[in-house]
Structure formats: structure tokens, C-alpha cells
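Q: My collaborator sent me two sequences in one message, no labels, and asked for predicted structures for both. Can we handle them in order? The first one she listed is below.
A: Yes, handling them in the order given. First sequence, followed by its C-alpha cells:
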Amino acid sequence: MEKEIILQFLLATLWGGIVGLEREYRNKSAGFRTMTMISIGACFFTVMSQSIGLPGSTDRIASNIVTGIGFLGAGVIFKDDNRVNGITTAATIWAVAAVGMGIGSGYYIASGFASLMIIFVLTILPYVEAKMDKVSQTKTYVIESLYTDEITSRYEDLLKSLQLRYQIVSWVKRQDSLTVTWMVRGKEKHQIEFMKFVLSDELVRKLEY
């Protein structure tokens, strides 16, 4: 029995560590040691849940891992300007905990395959995502310019000509300036053309995106 538990810990260390190495390589907040500890901890909690659980409720401790790991994942999610970062790392924490639970329950092959799938998602799919991003991406532009009656319609005509879909999120006028926040969706090359036009516009005082 103890030999099997040691094997489970070693497997949890292996698969959690492999995922952690990928996160460490990308300099994420939850890296090698964090992912390894999550996997080992989830594995041990699952083993103990089966060993000390009351008859008919051996999953009592293990079931709370899913809830508890959510608080840990929430700690790596943060909002930066108009973007939310850390969601992928949080999801990875959740998935690695599931791998540890699988190993603790004796599903070694399934847990190993799940780890390989996690690695596949984290290493291969970003390239697919980058390709898709070239075809369709959403950007938020905050443009501060001198106020004129036709300034917004001028940008709207440009966006339409570039086949970019847009939405005005906010509109703030201060004395002789106008700050408009645009949410624009479309091809990457058309987004670049729009940015070049805005940057070369003499009326523009400030551009954020």
C-alpha cells in the first residue's frame, strides 16, 4: 500500500512538474514549483480522502479540492487596463489539480494522458490562436484629439473602408479636446493600417491601445 502511495507521489511530481516547466518557461506567476505542489497536494488529499473518509462518503475531502483550488486560481487572475490576464494559468492550476486527483485515485494512464493534453494546449494551440488572431482580433483604442464636428465620422468612414467592425464605448469632451474609446474588430493588417492613420493624424494628441 505504502509503495503504491510513493509511486503516486512520484507520478504526481512528474506530471505536475512537466506542466510547471512549461509555465516557468513562459515566466508565468504559477510556475514549476507551484504546479508540482498543486499536483502532489491534490494527489495526497485524494489518497487521504479514500483512507479516512466515512463509509459512503470517501469522496468528501476530494470533492472540496475542486472548490479550494478555485481560490488559488483566482489569485493569479488580474486586470490590466482593458485586459484580463492569468485566466489560462488559473485554468492550468485547476487542470493540474485534476491530474493529481486522478493519480491519487489510481488512474495513472488517464492522468498521464491528461497531462500530455494540457501540455499540448499550452504549447501548440497558442500558434493556432496566433493564426486566428491575424484573421480576426479585437482591439480597444483610446483616441484623444482636437475637437471638430466631423472627427468621429472621419474615423468611422476609415473603419468602414478597412472593413473593420467598430463600437464607440465611451465619449468624453474636455474644452477643445475629445476622447473617444473605440472597440474595433477585424483583420490584423487592417488594424495596423488604422493605427498608422491615427498616428499620422495631426489632430490626434494621444493614442492608447
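Q: And the one she listed second?
A: Here it is, processed independently of the first:
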Amino acid sequence: MNNPVMMHKRAYDLTDQLILRVDRLLGRLVPAREVSGRPTPSAPSSEASTAESATANEKPLTAGERQHIAGLMRINHAGEVAAQGLYHGQASVARQPAIRDSLLQSAREEGDHLAWCAERLHSLNSHTSYLNPAWYGGSFALGALVGLCGDKWSLGFVVETERQVEAHLDEHLALLPAHDVKSRAILEQIKQDEAHHAATAAHAGGEELPTIIKRAMTLCARLMTRSAYYV
């Protein structure tokens, strides 16, 4: 027999939602809690031919290369922290349940990216950005502000954000040493996911953002990337 109490669906008030947001923040900032729902793209493939090919192309990295790669991956990790903040902020004020669910699904996939970048940084004996709390908090506030403008504008913000991220990933792929197959595999999968997020948001009715907003987004992204590379 079903228990009526167990069947009751809890309604979350503002305090409950704040606690959930803080828990998500901790999950994004504490490396031990960064767990991917999908295998890391750089992990050895179950197919021998693919694994052998990756191993054959892999060469030892110099100290300078490791430092440079760590800087690039730290930027990408910080970007994923910011993406979590944006999606959570937008989802918290989304008007349509379907759009809210779509935003949260994208956030979960960004969480995979976050874990993959953190894992790569760990393998390089490096650290994530010390500014991550600022990236998440500022992005959450920005996401909520954009979301309050309406779902179509919120989706348009997703489209433009992901387009800029794709361009940024192309730059990083070009900057990686050719023999760093592990980082390359991670960034290529992330780029594929970001393109899917942009296409999904556009299909759902995202509005094209004004040029001035796009330029402001580009400037903010430059500030984050230049800071996260070192800090």
C-alpha cells in the first residue's frame, strides 16, 4: 500500500531553493565532488585500434608545455563554472517548465565538462582557478537577470554564449601541442556539446541579441580568460 506521505511532492520555498543553489555551487567548486555522468573523452577506448592510435600519437610533455596546457584547461574549467552559474540562474526564473528543464539538462552536460577539465588539471599537477566563486556568483546573477527579460531572450543569450565558446575552443585547439591528444579529445567533445546547446536554444525560439550585448559578452569573456590562465 502506498504511503500518502511518501507520495506528497514537496514544494520548495525560497530558502529551500537558496540551499539547493549553494549545494550546486559547492559541487562546482570542490574538486572532490566533480563527478562526470559520462566517460572522460581522453580515457582509453574499448576499441584496441583507437587506443593504439591515441597512444602512438602521445609524446611526453615538456615542463613549459604542461604549464601552458594547464593554463588553457584552467580557462576552460572556469568557463564551465560560469556556464553552470548562467544556466542555474536562467533556470531559476524561466517561465516555461520545458525551457527550465532544457536549461538544467544543458547544465548537467556542462557539469560533465567541468569534471573532465578538473581531471585533466589534476593529471597535469595543476589547480583550478581561485576565482571560481566569483565566476559562478556573477554568472548566476547575470543568468537570472537575462532570464527575467523573458524566455526568448534567455534562449538567445544561450545561443550567443555557446557560439562564442565554440570560437574560443577553436583557438585553444589551435594552441594545444599537436601531441596532447588527451586535452584535445576533451575540448573537441566539449565543442560538440556546446554546438548542440546552441542549436537546441535556437530551435526553441531564442532571439538574436543586439550587437552591443554581444560585444559586452566578448569583453567579459576576455577578462575571465586572461585572469583564469594564471589565477
